[in-house]
Amino acid sequence: MSGNPIKAIIERLKEFRRPGYYKNYDHKWTMVIDLDRCNGCEACVTACYAENNLPVVGKEDCGNSRVMNWIRVERYVAGEYPDVKVKFIPILCQQCSKAPCELGCPVYATYHNQDGLNVQVYNRCVGTFTCATYCPYDVRRFNWFTYKWDAPLEQQLNPDVTVREMGVMEKCTFCIQRIRAGKDKAKDEGRAVKDGDITPACAQSCPAGAFTFGDLNDPESRVSMLAKSRRRFRLFEELNTEPSVIYLKKVFADGGGNPPVGGHTLAGGHPPVKEGHGG
Amino acid sequence: MPAVILQLRKVTVDKRTYSEVNKDILRLMTKTGPGYYAALGIVASLAGILFFLPWAYQIYRGQGVTGLNVPVLWGVYLVNFVFWVGIAHAGTLISAMLFITKTPWRRAIARGAETMTLFALILVALYIFIHMGRPWNAYWTMPYPNQRELWLNFMSPIMFDVFAIGTYTTSSAVFLYFGMIPDLASLQHQTTGWRKKLYSTLSLGWRGTDAQWTVHGRATMFFSSFIMPLVVSVHSIVSWDFALSLVPGYSQTVFAPYFVTGALLSGLAGVMLMFTIMRWAYPFLTKYVTDYHYDRVGALILALSLVWSYFTCMEVFTGLYANTSLELEHLKFKILTLPYFKLYFLMIFCNSILPLSLIFKKLRVSRPFMLFLCIFVLIGMWLERYLIVPNALSRKFLPFMWHDYTPSWVEVSITLGALMFFVSLFMVSIKLFPVISLFEVKEDIGIPMKHEHRKDGA
């Protein structure tokens, strides 16, 4: 190797220090979830269990809030019986661009990868719980025990996904195995990844079509179109975590079902997103 | 001579001679009765049963044996971690800070406090391992060159912790050992057998020449100046574990000074509790740890308690002033919800109201009262951490995920067992090393001369 190797390493590291450097990534995977379409059927949850080898923990641990679901459909009930309205919101890892969990991990078990994803390296995790403590969305799940699958069920495990061992943190990866497969296939065919090549399990299974997955760096993609919607909002925008999950919901000024006053909605308060937002 | 010093001499020195000091400390170290062995046996076996066995069980089964759940991932282990870091602070405060300010009453209690610091830090390190999901990979938190080019995240507050605790443990161990060298040299002449060998090896050929004393004095000053900032920085860093997150109830700028004050408060209470028990077990220690010490430390506890109360008010005020639903929900849960309501006001009673009684000198020098007070302050400080660490996580951002936390038997058992482990380590150490600094107590006595030649007439 010619030149000073240490200098070369420092130069390489400096590249990662530039703020907003992920804008130059090949992809910025984004999920758009249309809450006006979600009916709370939890097909996405089931699909996620099947795709990502999530263990079923049983009644007792469910009661202890140790469910291993990477995506959950939160239910909020508004109003008094009988005039009640149930609102659903599917919550999965928001793949924050400025993720609090990445700050917390002492060993870089969770970091930002080249696709703008917030990934978790199971092998590197030592289990300090810091990431899950810092996570404002409570989407990280911990392997409390060594989970086992009963006799025929282990035949059903997805071979593309690791079975995590006891003591490591895990979370939604936007089905990174499918992203890898999609990119590999596109590479084999000698083309760039097209919009719609990759569909995570939850998006694939949603009967109402509430989930849309795509690349926000591609201005022509469906998610880029949807991200310009006036209905868009991101969860806890005020925390400045820059989530990659965009929700669509018509929210009226009074929070109820009344028609908007002067066409103004709460969600419309946020300006429409530009490409490569949040840098 | 200033009146304080005169008063001090009257209270602490009380016509002792060098040989009497030597004899007393040797008696403490070598004369071991059946009561000591019985106590040590009970405490050590309790440590084994309550601490090591449940820990092994937890490593075997997984963290699931604790009461932790998804929003509340930091429980009693982190509470104990912060609590023991707090206990560890008194040693450095007394030995380094008070050394630099030339506070005379530190001399008799400094060594004991330093020993406590070291053992508390051992527990702190253990709690880091206990709390980990995969403790067998704990060495991954150390920066070491490896083939896979893996490095550490130096932005992580947990990483700061590893280095802060590492620095603190190393420097307090060095400081403790360094301060002990003249004592070990003196003890090697008064002991026989394995003790003599041990002390003469450890004393590194100390002869007590003027040059050596000069170097020793300078080095102590250097170490004290080096360690003193650690008193502030270590616990500030521990508080950043919480303050650098976004969680309501954690994300508070007041945390660093708040934690440092609390640490010093609990540390001083710990030191006085330890000396009170030791004075009860070895009545001749009353000559060394006198009412004057109780008076001064009591005043310091009172001052720290007032500062702590101020920060507690500020913590609540910051939440109210922010006036967001998140902060208000957290405060409501922490202060107004049962059973935390009771715990919160017990904490206020222990740390703010009870120490106010120390305004009266009679209570400061009353040993039973100080014993009672120190235990209550320690309980209060433990509760403070308990009310911060798991409670804030119980009421995080999304109400759907709100979940309460109750420690499991494993956590309770490890908490008690670790205390027993600490006590047994301390009990072994007082038999091996002088728990009262010989040469510093002798400094108090002054140069031996005939009584009528003493200028101060003491």
Report on this structure.
The complex is a heterodimer of chains A (279) and B (458). With 279 residues, chain A is an alpha+beta fold. Chain A has one domain: Alpha-Beta Plaits (2-Layer Sandwich). Chain A has helices at residues 5-17, 43-51, 59-63, 100-104, 130-134, 176-188, 201-205, 222-227, and strands at 29-34, 72-78, 85-91, 110-112, 118-120, 141-142, 169-170, 211-215, 232-233, 245-248. In chain A, the strands form four sheets. In chain A, strands 8-1-10-9 form a four-stranded mixed β-sheet. In chain B, helix 4 (76-100) packs antiparallel against helix 5 and helix 4 packs antiparallel against helix 8. Chains A and B meet through strand 2, helix 4, helix 5 and strand 6 of A and helix 6 of B.
List keywords for this structure.
heterodimer; A: 279 residues; alpha+beta; Alpha-Beta Plaits; 4-stranded mixed β-sheet; two-stranded antiparallel ribbon; 10 strands; 15% strand; B: 458 residues; mainly alpha; 16 helices; globular
Short summary of the structure?
By secondary structure, chain A is an alpha+beta fold. In chain A, 22% of the residues lie in helices and 15% in strands. Chain A has helices at residues 5-17, 43-51, 59-63, 100-104, 130-134, 176-188, 201-205, 222-227, and strands at 29-34, 72-78, 85-91, 110-112, 118-120, 141-142, 169-170, 211-215, 232-233, 245-248.
Kindly report how far apart the N and C termini of chain B lie.
12 Å
Sheet with most strands of chain B: none
Question: Level of helix content of chain A?
Answer: 10-25%
Indicate the CATH class of chain A.
Answer: Alpha Beta
Please tell me the overall pLDDT of chain B.
Answer: 87
Give the strand tally of chain A. 10
Shape of chain A: globular
Summed over residues and divided by their number, the pLDDT of chain A gives a mean of 84
Which sequence of SSEs, written as H and E, runs from N to C of chain A? HEHHEEHEEHEEHHEHEE
Query: Which structural class do you get from the secondary structure elements of chain A?
Result: alpha+beta
Number of separate domains of chain A: 1
